[in-house]
Amino acid sequence: MNMTTNLATYSVVLTYSAMAVYVVAFIAFALDMAKRSGEVAAAASGAGAPKAATEQKTVATVQGGTVVLERVAQSSDGDGSSRRGTRFERVGMAMTILALVLHVGSVVLRGIAADRVPWGNMFEFSLTGTALIILIFLLVQLWQNLKFLGVFITGLTIILLGIATVNYYVPVRPLVPALESYWLVIHVFVAISGTGFFALGAGLAVAQLVQTYRQGRTTSNKIRFMETLPDADRLEVLTYRVLLVGFVLWTFTLIAGAIWAERAWGRYWGWDTKEVWTFIIWVVYAGYIHARATRGWRGARSSWLALIGFAAVMFNFSVVNVFFKGLHSYSGI
Amino acid sequence: MSRQSETDDSRIENGTASDPMRPSDHVDGAGPADGGGGGEVNQPKLGLIGYVRFFWRQLTSMRTALFLLMLLALAAIPGSLVPQRTADPNGVVQYKADHPQLFPVLDKLQVFDTYTSVWFSAIYLLLFVSLIGCIVPRTKHHWQALRTRPPKTPARLTRLAGYRSVAVNPDTVTTAAGGTDAATGLPSVEHAVTRAMAILKRSGYRVERFGDSVSAERGYLRETGNLVFHAALVGVLLAVGVGGGFGYTGQRLLVEGQTFSNVLGSYDSFNPGRWFQQTDLKGYNLTLDKFVTKYEERNLDALGQALDYSATVTSRDKGGEAKTSRLGVNDPLSVGGTNVYLLGNGYAMGVTVRDGKGDVAFKDVVPFLPEDSNYTSTGVIKVPDAVPDQLGMVGFFYPTASKLSTGAFTSAYPDSQNPLLTLQVYTGDLGLDDGVPRSVYTLDTSGLKQIAGRQSDAASIELKPGQTKTLPNGAGSITFDGVKRYVSLDINRDPSQVLVGAFAILAMLGLLTSLFVPRRRIWIKALRQADSENGEYNLEYAGLARGEDPNLLRAVDDIARQHFALISNRSSE
Containing H/E element for B167? Predict the structure, then answer.
């Protein structure tokens, strides 16, 4: 009968399919972690097998008058990326990609059904946001092997999608006039992307904290699989680089939001609840960047700040959008 | 740990990689050992100046900045938990009614004005003082650094990042283009050094030669960006704080056909900035010709949802030149130095009231305020000129009236498809003459006698457009002339807006350069072998990161390869 309703229904079917595949991916990633523990145990029982991370130093070698300059291996400082993924990890990655394809399908169908960008309300915002988190997770692998975050990222995505489909689902509706603006495309998209990087950074910060805790202990380790992860310093650097990108995107979100607010409400800043929380998040991550540059704060302490920042992001996304009164609330349910 | 050791190395090697102008507790700062330590300074006696310096150092330290940032984030939270006077004045009134005990306490703490409160202001002002205290000396230092040459090549490069050493001898050196000394035919160190300088220069490095070595540095833009970012934040604050005082915001409700002129008396409400003067109001007129709402008519899930609000307005400046334009949501109108925003709309009732003597006592359009999404609206009609008694009416308007099973009316659709106006009529003294200001949207019915409505013998008056009904008790008659749309407009002037935007963009650009432009040093050094007979020499390459630089090793590697390819007779692959 109705095109819009049909497409929206297919979109929902795809969403559920994607969630199912994410669950498979999540299980595979979790099994990979278990497998890593086994590997480490086996390596420990073997005669002093070398750790996954081996320092590669390249120096020009002179061989009988022939000078050879070797290319410096980029992944040099103990990030464990030289380790080949287990079968479970590869299954996890493959399933994540498959799930993302379904997920993007559902986002696109929703967009076509609504005949606009698919982030006009809380449900669509969650749907598109989680797809972007996964996409960013996958793209980042091209730069750095962060597959060990698979458990965290797929887990987070499943939870968010679950909440969105159960609590926030609404039929396709046109936008209220206040949202009819190209700034909706720019401002919200950048905000969601920033959230994706913040999510990755939070995962890395957690890993960094666990690693710091583990490295601080001299007795035998319970969390064995962590040995296959980069060391705490490396994780700290990775957290920082990921969060930097998030911070820049968030700064842009803030500015774009202010410009849009001026067009829509006649003032660029009015301390609306959503504005307040966007500001709080910005300040916390600015604090994180400062903490990292402060003697005695780089490492575990700055990682805690990164987690506080992400907690604020999640609070802003869930509680502020839904329960707080403000000008942004109609973008809620 | 690798980063830390780089820094340590550099201190050993040349003592310059630490940044003396950074706060002492900055990772790249000079550190307490160099005498710059704020908190750790252990001085036996501090005079007054000593204390001032001590506190200044404390205030401008990284730790304090960090603390203030966290405090700022924390202090911003209460303002999102309770309604704010500026953003939601009605919410504050409601809060007072809901929490009569808590309200005075919170109000004393200025929680309802969080963002202008003493404590919030104190935090951000301290933060900005700390910020300025940090960037001023750094700017000075950076200004000098921009004009100094790269530092002397360290004596030993071995422990620096990406270090490598290659041997050059007559077998490997290129014979073309000056690779060998013209006179002796031996490998030319001079050639290697000039080539090194050329390559580094081409790669954007600032280059200085020290004997047989080249010292190069790049990425001054990183610090420039950092300073621009922080300075731009100060700029934003100043522009908001000072520039905002020259503007004003005003509100005006305008019914179709009405004209607004930009003079103070014409505004329904007006909030001037600190330095506003009446002469700032530029004279112009604005007429609302027409207001149209487009509704969703096909999607059953969103039937009647507004898709677009569009007002057609005609503006006339002092010269009298008329210009008709569209005014919409997200589409403000710029006129006479102000921006006009369409923020709300509703229905206004055109009514004519004749009093008991048959004279027209009232003829006007009365705006009604919408109560729900289907525009059930309420309003008040006050007729002080009615004889013998003043008349007051409390009205309900239903754009698409539909009767509930209880007999009450409701509006089923926001568009005006079956408009109905119902009125409860009161007589008595409206109290308009005692000097107390009264809202035009409320009627104080105490002391009034209802003559039509639930508390009287006669039923409420029900009117469709064009209808006239007589009022009970010979009080006269009322005619419903018709429905008109009105808009509520915000008319703002903020001369600082452009400045704030410019600073914000500057901050963004500064941030990008400060985070992503790497600052690094690279050295290329030719070491003549003391016992060489055939002019053999070693070439050494090394780099040093100044701040975050993930690609340092690759950069040293690239430079080394390029350079070696030029002076070698074979490819380096």
Answer: strand B161-168
B68 Cα to chain A: minimum distance (Å) = 9
Give contacts of A 233-262 with B, CB under 8 A: 233, 237, 240-241, 244, 247-248, 251-252, 255, 258-260, 262
Least confident of A65-79, B12-26, B483-497: A65-79
Contact A295 B31 (CB under 8 A): yes
Nearest CA in chain A to B236: A255
**Beta bridge mates, B397:** B377, B421
Q: Which residue has the higher pLDDT, B109 or B13?
A: B109
Q: What type of residue is B301?
A: D
Q: Chain A contacts of B83, Cβ < 8 Å?
A: 325
- Which pLDDT tens digit goes with each residue over B63-73? 888 999 999 99
- Chain B: give the shortest CA distance to residue A22, in Å: 30
Q: Are strands B333-335 and B401-403 parallel, antiparallel or unpaired?
A: unpaired
Chain B residues in contact with A293 by the CB 8 A cut-off are: 26-28, 62
Quote the ipTM score: 0.84
Closest residue by Cα to residue B25 from B51, B59, B63, B57:
B63
A280 contacts in B (CB within 8 Å)?
73, 76-77
Residues 6+ apart with CB under 8 A from B462: B420, B421, B422, B469
Distance from CA of B513 to the nearest CA of A (A): 11
Helix A3-45, helix A150-167: angle, nearest 10: 150
B553: Cβ contacts below 8 Å, ≥ 6 apart? A72, A74, A76, B161, B162, B543
CB contact under 8 A, A268 and B501: yes
How large is the C-alpha radius of gyration of chain B?
39
CB of A148 within 8 Å of a chain B CB? The answer is no
Tens digit of each residue's pLDDT (9 = 90 or more) over B552-562: 999 999 999 98
**Contact predicate A280/B73, CB 8 Å:** yes
Residues 6+ apart with CB under 8 A from B533: none
Phi then psi dihedrals of residue B422, to 5 deg: -115, 145
Q: Which residues of chain A have pLDDT under 50?
A: 1, 47-82, 331-332
- Tokens representing A267? 């003032």
Write down the pTM of the prediction.
0.86
Q: Do B309 and A72 touch (CB under 8 A)?
A: no
